[in-house]
TrEMBL record:
SUPFAM superfamilies from the UniProt entry: 4Fe-4S ferredoxins
Keywords attached to this entry: 4Fe-4S, Iron, Iron-sulfur, Metal-binding, Repeat
Keyword 4Fe-4S assigned: yes
Protein's name according to its UniProt entry: Ferredoxin-type protein
Keyword 4Fe-4S on entry: yes
Superkingdom as given in the UniProt entry: Bacteria
Pfam families xrefs: Fer4_7, Fer4_9
Signal peptide boundaries: none
Gene Ontology MF: a single term: metal ion binding
């Protein structure tokens, strides 16, 4: 942050928010995670799926490329502060997104992501020329990341999900 931006943040009391692309463990406090986390690493140690790691700042991050989260709650149980809480597991904001480098979309048969998804959230829509396009059901996707880990070319990422807002008429 520049000196001017830093001074403005200080004067307005608005400190910079964490980069929205950083994936903290499930149940992470949204606003004050940096303050609450003691950097003990207990959540990383207990994760049975080995999908958590410490980042350069010494804070835990979810790494979907390592495997899927089962939402077992072990990390939140191990956390001695309110940095992680089971009460916030339902706020998990991530959902799968398939890039246009997908093998099937380019005419190479592959269904690895579909096979890895226990939620049945991935279907394929057949196209011309032997291609098939992923049809992701966002209502079924829980953002576990298993498909991301399974994709042989890294074409699946987890992105922050913004549900469409519904306009309510008075
Ligand atoms: S919920 Fe379970 S599988 Fe997921 S990150 Fe926490 S400890 Fe690991
Ligand atoms: S267990 Fe809690 S306090 Fe310890 S590193 Fe994980 S989130 Fe931070
Ligand atoms: S992230 Fe979504 S689409 Fe991918 S395996 Fe998990 S539930 Fe299925």
């Amino acid at each position: 942050m520049s000196a001017v931006a830093s001074r403005r943040a200080f004067l307005t009391g608005r400190l910079p928010r964490e980069d929205d692309s950083v994936k903290r463990p499930p149940g992470a406090a949204r606003e004050n995670f940096h303050d609450l986390c003691t950097r003990c690493g207990d959540c990383v140690s207990v994760c049975p799926e080995d999908v958590l790691a410490m980042d350069d700042a010494g804070l835990p991050v979810f790494q979907p490329q390592q495997g899927g989260c089962t939402f077992c709650g072990g990390c939140a149980d191990a956390c001695k502060t309110d940095a992680l809480s089971l009460d916030r597991f339902a706020e998990w904001p991530w959902r799968a997104k398939v890039s246009d480098t997908c093998l099937s979309a380019n005419g190479v048969s592959c269904r690895v992501c579909q096979d890895s998804c226990d939620q049945g959230a991935i279907r394929f829509r057949l196209k011309t020329g032997g291609r098939a396009e992923v049809n992701l059901d966002l209502a079924s996707c829980v953002g576990c990341g298993a498909c991301s880990a399974a994709c042989p070319i890294g074409a699946v990422s987890l992105e922050r999900y913004q549900p469409a807002t519904v306009e309510v008429r008075e």
